[in-house]
Amino acid sequence: QCRVFCPTGAISIKTQMDEVWDAIADPNTRVVAQVAPAVRVAVGDAFGLTRGHSVMGKLVAVLHRMGFDEVYDTAFAADLTIMEESKEFLDRVEKGENLPLFTSCCPAWVKYLSDQYPEFKDNLSTCRSPQGMFSAVMKEYYRDPEKNQGKKTFVVSIMPCTAKKMEILRPNNFTKGEQDTDVVITTTELIRMIRNSGIEFSTLVTEACDMPFGFGSGAGVIFGVTGGVTEAMLRRFADRHDKATMDSVAEAGARGEDGIKEFTVTYKGTPLHVCVVSGLANAHTVMENIRSGKKQYHIVEVMACRRGCIMGGGQPPRAGSRTKTARMEGLYQADNVTSIRKADENPLIVSLYDGLLKGKVHELLHVDEY
Ligand code: SF4
C-alpha cells in the first residue's frame, strides 16, 4: 500500500493515486474531478509560476489531458452549502434553538467537537461539506440511465486536506448505500501525478470547467480561507450585489489572519454576534468561553487549520509567511474577478433547486446525525 506522510509527521495517510489511474484507464468508468478552492493557489509555484496566483484554468486543462472525463469546481457546491446553511441559521435564530450554529465544512473540526464537546453536537450545522454535497449531487445526476449510458461514475476529490480522506468514509457521506466520493487526492499528490504524467503544466492553455455544474460564485471560492464561509453567508443576507455592498461585507470583520475574530452585524434589525476561528487551539479557547457562558454568539465558523484550507495538511508544506499571504490574496483576487459574487445569484444553483434537488434537498445536502 502506497502511503504519504502528514507534514507534522504524526500520522501516515493512505494515498489512492493508483486507483485514480486505474479508473481513468477503464473505458466503462466516467471519472469526474472536483477541485477545492484552496488547491488553485498552491499548485502554480510548484511549476515555476507566480506564488499564490490562481491556476484553476490550467488545473482544468491538465486534468482533462490526464484523462478525467469531467472537471468541476468545488466552489459550485460551496454555493449550495451557503444556500442551505444560511437558511438553517435564520431558522435557528427565529426559533432561538441550537445557537450558536457551528459550521460543518471542516471535518477535523467536526471530529474535534464531536469528541471533545459532544454536548454541542446539535449546534453543528446539518449541512454536508461542499465536498460531500458535490459528490452526492454528481452521483445522483448520473443515476439516471439516460445520462450514465451504462458507465459507472467515479468521483475524485482534489483537496488541500488530509482529513477529507476520512470524511468520505463516514456513513453520513453515503447516499442510497453508495459512497459518494470515491477517492480524495491531496494537492501534493496532484502535483506528483502531474509530474508523473509528463505534461508541461506551466505552458498549458487555460480551460473552463464542464457542465452541468461548471460554475461557482466568488462566494464559493473564498471558502478556502478563514472567514470565507462567514463572508459568503453575509453576502447571501445582503439585498444588493453592487461593489459598495460587497466591500462593506468584506470589511465587516471576517477577513484577516487573526486566529479568533469577533464582530457584530445587524440583520433585519437583529444584532448577530459572529466568531471566526482558525486553528484547533483557538477553537479550544472559544469553546471553553462558550461552555462557561463567558461568551455568547449566534454563529461560529471554525477551520482546524490556521488561516483555513490554504494552509491545509494536504498543501505543499514548508510555506513561509510570504506564501501564506500570497495564497490568501490569490483567493480574494480570484473572487474579485468573478462576475457573480453571491451564491444565491449563481444560475446553476437556482436551476438545480428547480430540477434535480426537488424533494431531495435533505437526502443529498444534509446529514442526519454526527
Ligand atoms: Fe481540511 Fe484544514 Fe480545511 Fe479543515 S481547515 S477542511 S482540516 S484543510
From TrEMBL:
It comes from the Bacteria. Keywords: 4Fe-4S, Iron, Iron-sulfur, Metal-binding. Its cofactor is [4Fe-4S] cluster. This is 2Fe-2S iron-sulfur cluster binding domain-containing protein. It comes from Blautia hansenii. The chain holds residues 193 to 562 of 562 of the full protein.
